[in-house]
Each structure stands twice: as structure tokens, then as C-alpha cells.
Write a structure and sequence with these properties.
7 helices, alpha+beta, 3-stranded antiparallel β-sheet, 268 residues, globular
Length: 268
């Protein structure tokens, strides 16, 4: 544990492949915001010098991972004039998943921040921009938690994709590569995986069969990423929807506020 009582500098050398590096960067940035002397001193080395934390006012930004599902909804809605306003996000966020807005700009979604005040959470307006790539290739090594969002979005919009950097998906709450292949097939999309770290969809379709609902595998992101598919398939059933409580407990309430009709089904 690193704290104010640390009297000697600490150097950490990371071995192997560094996955989700922005989470480390965010931790170091937050430490420095509170006065710590901590930073990368080499590509694989972190040094923390003996300097105490300081008490200071601090704005806590909202979660860009959670925001990604609203960008997904905007990408999939049939309402060309729709707008979504998301509060508490930063232009220039240190969160790795803030890359959401850049990737979605390739999938027909634009955003505009109300102001440009650095370090202050703001409101961002999300709308359609009318432009989409015909195929998306992306390496998610720094933001693997976004993979499910973009798998569903691209497939629903008929955009073939090749996503890399997904090795950690197999050891998340569930094997997300396997889960995505299984549940997307229910929706009529045949995905392939490669090298235990890639997901590919080349446009191959099959007969949909989702009457029994989409299984969520005790994984909050399976429910969160699949739910916007209701924009394409009204009446979509999400099994065990309570899994969203891990990261976004009010998700279903927020969908209702946005106009989605949600019904709880008791299965026997």
C-alpha cells in the first residue's frame, strides 16, 4: 500500500503484456491530482516518490463505459431527429473508455460538449451524424470493456467488423467471446473468433431464434450491451436483467425515462 507514511521511493516494473493500460494511467493521474509524485519512468516501469497526498476539492466524472450504451442506442434508433444528453462527462477525459465517442463517430453518432472547461464535468449532446463506415477494424487492447457494445452495434447496423485485443474477455465475469458468439447467433449473426483474442463478423447471417431471451451469464455488460438491440427487435427479452446492478443499477429506470417500454416477465 502506498500512502503518506512512505519514506522511500518505490519502483514497480511490469512484466508481460500490459493490458488495459489506460486504467493504470488513470490511477497515476488521480494520484497526481491529490499531490502524489507518481508516473511512468519507462515503458514498463512506474516510480512513486515519497510525497504525501493533499486534501483538495475534486469533481468525480461519470462513467464513460455506462455512457457507451446510450451512444449505442443513438446509433440504433430509427428516429433521425433523436437527441440524448449525458451529464457529468469530460471533454478530454482520462478514462480509457472515453474513446467511445471517437469510435461511434464512425458509426453515425456525433457529440457536442456544452462547454470546454478543462477538468469540469459537463453535459454532452449525442445525436446522429448520418455517416457510417462500411467496415470497422479496431484493437480494443486498451478498452476491452467496450467490445460487447461495438459487436452488437456493428452487427445491428450490418457493418462487418474485425476486433482485436480481446484476450481478457475470456476471463471477465464470463467468457465474453463465447457468450457473444452464442447470443449473437440467437439474433441471427454468425461470429467467428481467432487467436483467443479476436472477434470477426463478415456479414454471415442465420435464422434468428431469440424467443427464450438473451442470456446474460451473470455479466452486467452482456445485459447492458444487448438491451439497445430492442431498437431493432422490439420485444427483446433479457434474462436475469438484475446483473446490471454491478455497474449501472438504475439502467432499466433510465431506459423507461427515455421512453422504452419495459415489462418484467416471471418465468416458471
Amino acid at each position: 500500500m502506498i500512502g503518506p507514511s512512505l519514506k522511500k521511493g518505490l519502483t514497480l516494473r511490469l512484466t508481460g503484456s500490459i493490458i488495459s493500460r489506460p486504467y493504470i494511467d488513470l490511477t497515476l493521474w488521480t494520484m497526481r491530482e491529490f499531490g502524489a509524485d507518481a508516473d511512468w519512468t519507462a515503458a514498463d516501469t512506474i516510480t512513486v516518490n515519497p510525497k504525501p497526498y493533499l486534501d483538495r476539492p475534486y469533481f468525480i466524472e461519470n462513467d464513460w463505459s455506462g455512457a457507451s450504451y446510450w451512444y449505442e442506442i443513438m446509433a440504433l434508433t430509427q428516429d433521425q431527429d433523436a437527441e440524448i444528453r449525458l451529464s457529468g462527462l469530460m471533454d478530454g477525459s482520462k478514462q480509457g473508455d472515453s474513446v467511445t465517442r471517437y469510435i461511434f463517430s464512425l458509426l453515425g453518432v456525433k457529440n457536442k460538449f456544452r462547454t470546454k472547461k478543462v477538468g469540469i464535468p459537463q453535459t454532452v449532446k449525442v445525436a446522429k451524424n448520418g455517416r457510417c463506415v462500411t467496415k470497422l477494424e479496431y484493437d480494443f487492447v486498451n478498452s476491452p470493456d467496450l467490445a460487447q457494445t461495438f459487436v452488437v452495434t456493428c452487427a445491428a447496423k450490418g457493418i462487418p467488423f474485425h476486433f482485436k485485443g480481446l484476450s481478457t474477455l475470456k476471463i471477465k465475469e464470463t467468457d465474453r467471446i463465447k457468450a457473444l458468439k452464442t447470443e449473437m447467433r440467437k439474433l441471427g449473426f454468425v461470429l467467428r473468433d481467432a487467436n483467443d483474442s479476436e472477434l470477426i463478423w463478415d456479414g454471415e447471417r442465420c435464422e434468428p431464434d431469440f424467443e427464450q431471451g438473451i442470456d446474460t451469464y451473470e455479466d452486467h455488460r452482456m445485459a447492458l450491451s444487448m438491451a439497445p438491440f430492442a431498437c431493432i427487435y422490439p420485444g427483446l427479452i433479457i434474462n436475469n436483467p438484475q446483473v446490471v446492478t454491478k455497474s449501472y443499477p438504475r439502467f432499466w429506470d433510465d431506459l423507461k425515462k427515455a421512453g422504452f417500454q419495459i415489462e418484467v416477465i416471471n418465468k416458471e
